[in-house]
Structure formats: structure tokens, C-alpha cells
Amino acid sequence: MKKLALIALSFAVLAGPAFAQVKIDDPWVRATVPQQKVTGAFMRITSARDARLVSARSPVAGKVELHEMAMQNDVMKMRPVAAVDLPAGTAVELKPGAHHIMLFDLKQPMVEGETVPFVLVVEGKDGKRQAVEVSAPVRPLNAAHGAGHGG
Ligand SMILES: [Cu+2]
Questions:
Q1: Which long-range contacts (CB under 8 A, 24 or more apart) does 77-82 make?
Q2: Which of 2, 5, 27, 101 could form a disulfide with 136 if both were Cys (CB 3.0 to 4.6 A apart)?
Q3: Separation of 73 CA from ligand 1 center, angstroms?
Q4: How far apart are CA 77 and CA 51, in angstroms?
Q5: 81-118, pLDDT tens digit by residue?
Q6: Domains of the chain
Q7: Is 126 left (phi over 0), alpha (psi -120 to 50) or beta?
Q8: pLDDT tens-place string over residues 45-55
Q9: Residue 89 C-alpha to ligand 1 middle, in angstroms?
């Protein structure tokens, strides 16, 4: 039993540097009003190596998608994308009006001051995937995300 714990510990230490290669800054989730089942999550992601954000999940949402905003016939619309590119050493901003993470089928209201856990899955050029854990505080809903969403 003790030996097993030691092995687990050394594995965690070995895994450390890989996790350190993706840095998350300023994560946040937009607060919701009662009955609202959809919201957005935003953050800045910097990967030390060329990589892609390929998926995200959170226990508060039934479904999580990666989205982008794009002009379509002069109208800003959002649509799901398979991945968000993370060029080496470049801070990629997930923000309202650009790429963002979309949470669907919310299991609870997003209340300002609470913190929402996420797992982001980042895939390197070599196809190896790593899970990056993020805790994102909920912030009030004054900015203009949600336009273009049928909900
Ligand atoms: Cu969206």
C-alpha cells in the first residue's frame, strides 16, 4: 500500500513539468439569471509549445463546446469549432466576441463569487493530450456575450 502511494507520488512529480507547459490566466465564467441554461467561460491560455485546445468539460454543465465568433453576412454569429490553436509562447485570449468556451445544460445557476472547476484538454503536435485543471470565478453578466445564441 505504502509502495503504491510512493509510486503515485513520483508519477505526480514527473507529470509536473508537462502541466506547467500550459498557463491559464484570468479565467472567469459569466453569471447567469435564473432559468438561464447557457453561459460562456473566458481565459487567457499560453502554451509553451505549439498545441491545440481540443475540448473542455465542467461538472456544472451537461455539455461544453469550444466556440468562435465570426462575421456571417454582416452579422456576428458564434459557432462550434473542433479546436482552438495555441501557438507556442503566444497568449490566446478566449473572450466575449472571440473564441470562448460555451457551457450548455447548466445544472445550477452561475452565481457571482462562486468558482467553477474546468478541465481543459490540450493536444500537442505529437498528438499527446494533457488535462489542465482550471478554477474560474463567476463574474457579473454585463458584457455582451450571448448575442447570436439561440440558447
Ligand atoms: Cu458561444
A1: 77/148, 78/102, 78/148, 78/149, 82/54
A2: 27
A3: 18
A4: 26
A5: 999 999 999 999 999 889 999 999 999 999 999 999 99
A6: 21-139 (2.60.40.1890)
A7: alpha
A8: 999 999 999 99
A9: 25
All cell numbers assigned to 21? 507547459
Looking at residue 50, what DSSP letter applies? S
Centroid of ligand 1 to alpha carbon of 96 (angstroms): 9
CA 14 – ligand 1 centroid, Å: 36
Find the 83 Cα to ligand 1 centroid distance in Å.
14
Q: Could you tell me the three cell numbers for 147? A: 448575442
Please answer whether residues 122 and 129 qualify as being in contact, where contact means their C-beta atoms are separated by less than 8 angstroms: yes
In the chain, count H helices and then E strands.
1, 10
Distance 68 CA to ligand 1 centre (A): 7
CA 52 to centroid of ligand 1, rounded, Å: 18
> What is the model's pTM?
0.80
